[in-house]
Amino acid sequence: MAKKSNSTMKIISIILLVGGIGLAFRGNQMSGSLESQINSAFNGSPTDKVMMLYIGGAVSFIVGLYLSIRK
Q1: pTM for the model
Q2: Could you tell me which of 8, 21, 7, 3 has the C-alpha nearest to residue 65?
């Protein structure tokens, strides 16, 4: 398999970094929704959608960060 050029990897890492931040931000917005607040009141935990956005955002951000600092 051919190596990807540095510029392609930098673009991918930037997309992953921005996407990760976007997913986490969206999860934060959803956690304030009425559905999430009701679920938190009864179950004591946020909805699955919110958790998936947080986890997906964190993983995307970490992979993007790794790709951006890797040589």
Answers
A1: 0.79
A2: 21
Task: Give percent of the chain with pLDDT exceeding 90.
Answer: 52
Q: Is the pLDDT of residue 58 over 90?
A: yes
Instruction: Give whole-number Cα distances, 58 to 7, 31, 36, 38, in Å.
Output: 23, 16, 20, 25
Q: Which two tokens stand for residue 52?
A: 């998936």
3-state SS record for 21-69: HHHHHHHHHHHCCHHHHHHHHHHCCCCHHHHHHHHHHHHHHHHHHHHHH
Measuring CA to CA, which residue among 65, 70, 71, 69 is closest to residue 15?
A: 65
For residues 7 and 58, the answer to whether their CB atoms sit within 8 Å is no
